Amino acid sequence: MNANRHGQIKLSQLRALIAVAERGNFGEAALQLGLSQSAVSHAIATLEEILGVVLISRGRHGAYLTPVGDRVLVYARQMMQSLDGMMKEANLAKGLQGGQVRIASFRSVATHILPEAIAQFRQRFPEITVLLTDHEDLPEVEQTLREGRADIGFTYLPTDDDFEVWELLQDEFVALFPPTFKLKSKRLTWEELAHHPMIMPPETDATMLQFYAHCLKFSCTLNVAYRVNTDSTIVSMVARGLGAAVLPRLAAEPIPTGLQVFSLPVPIYRVIGIAVLADALQVPAVFAFLDILKCKDLLMSKP
């Protein structure tokens, strides 16, 4: 077909072809499209003239695609699907011209993951406001989601069925020792951990419950000298030689130069996940932010 004839093909002609193929009858296709039968017949005839081939075989018992008509139908459907895709993208863009995304997080994710995610999001969607609330207690994040005060939250996996979740990363619990500490062997032992003075979060701290249960499993009773709420304070105290500590690596960042970092005798990880309330209706901006959070390049930029 001559290239200058492409522009003569109209979407109405493609819709007519698809309708006739599906109904097998010009009259029923016309009813489906809300047109007269003569209008549908004219659209098909014009398309056949432009293409220079017969697409529909007309007879007493209905209308049937010719072999070439059957092949052309595939492209007609693809073109209509592409048009639908164009409309969806346009509608999505219109939904991303304003509004806001509300995020609830705990400190380590808010400090080390979200700044890069928000920067990428604002670069792509500068007119959308991002509201971030930083919670000390993990249950507060989940409650904020349940009450509809946040669209996206960060929690530990597994979690309740109230949420739809995606794994973000696995954060290893590490032992932090002062610069002067000397390891007795190549690897840290439970005995060394049990005998060293420890600076630890409270026993009820949601972040540490998994680790405390891990210690009990291996009959390790910690010698806790201090109970401290704030991760950064714990790290500073270890750096000053006041004791050792165990924290998730992300919570301990930035780790001061000289501080010694060891894996536990049996490693353990907290699994951090992205959560939204299950079955909640989300605005396009929320889906756009979730796409950025799921990007592997984002995780590569974390400390």
TrEMBL record:
In its UniProt record, a GO molecular function of this protein is: DNA binding
HTH lysR-type domain residues are 9-66
Under the heading CDD domains, the entry gives: PBP2_LTTR_substrate
A single GO cellular-component term from the record reads:
cytosol
Q: List the InterPro entries.
A: HTH-type_LysR_regulators (IPR050950), LysR_HTH_N (IPR000847), LysR_subst-bd (IPR005119), WH-like_DNA-bd_sf (IPR036388), WH_DNA-bd_sf (IPR036390)
Fetch the SUPFAM superfamilies from UniProt: Periplasmic binding protein-like II, Winged helix' DNA-binding domain
What the record says about family reads:
Belongs to the LysR transcriptional regulatory family.
Q: What is this protein called?
A: LysR family transcriptional regulator
Organism annotation: Stenomitos frigidus ULC18
Query: Highest lineage ranks of the organism?
Result: Bacteria, Bacillati, Cyanobacteriota, Cyanophyceae, Leptolyngbyales
